[in-house]
Model the fold of this input.
Amino acid sequence: MQLSRPLGEAALAPDDPIDNLLLEEFLEVNRGLAVDVLIVIPAYNEADSLPGVLDRMPETIARMPETIASHRVAILVVSDGSTDGTAKAAADRGVLTIAAPINRGQGAALKLGYLVAIRLKARYVAVVDADGQWDPADLSFAIDILDSGSATFVQGSRVLGSSEVGDSFRDLGVTFFGWLISLLIGTKITDTSSGIRAFTTGAIDGIRLDQPQYQSSELLIAAAMSGAAVCEFPVTMSKRTAGSSKKAKNALYGWYYLRAVIRTFLREFRTPRP
Done:
């Protein structure tokens, strides 16, 4: 199987025609945009929950006095073929918006966001889900860790913090995949499918991303096996207050997630390193 290109190369000329078209259109409209931190929010039919997520964004992305005023922040919502007004809900709040013409999966939406960050020469990329279950204010803690230089890839953990969802099967899955991926990458991870994370663009510039949907494990494994310094911090995962989950049922979701983990690890294990 032919390997996909690293993100740094793909950002210059994406192989996917939709990515290529949307990226060039975005850069043309936003010519001259200067960003240090790009917050990417992938969204598929989240018109009811997205406004609440945007309203909870922190006023300043960093909390340390020496960096609080030094980050130019932009929020980018990537609407993944939504049919419910998600893109309009984002645009109405004045944030950057890309509307894909078809639903391709959360992984595809995030990959496009990463390509935008690389082309904008952003220092950091931050990600938060659009479902309202993760507090965007926690991004400030992630950026503080990156600013300290102690890690290049940071994500929230409901295991270190708490979960209000109350799904014992999902909780078991979180524990299992935390154990499995920790074993594979040689770094202790407790929550591999967190909906909140941040990393340097340098940590992802050389990685490959192929998963259109189950992307959180692929991103984590690829970054860690490429040399990223990974750490976690405690967060709370809340219950949904609007919208509905787009994920597969528990057993099917677990199988797809496991398949993505295995495929990513084998790909990265076989990929020559410079």
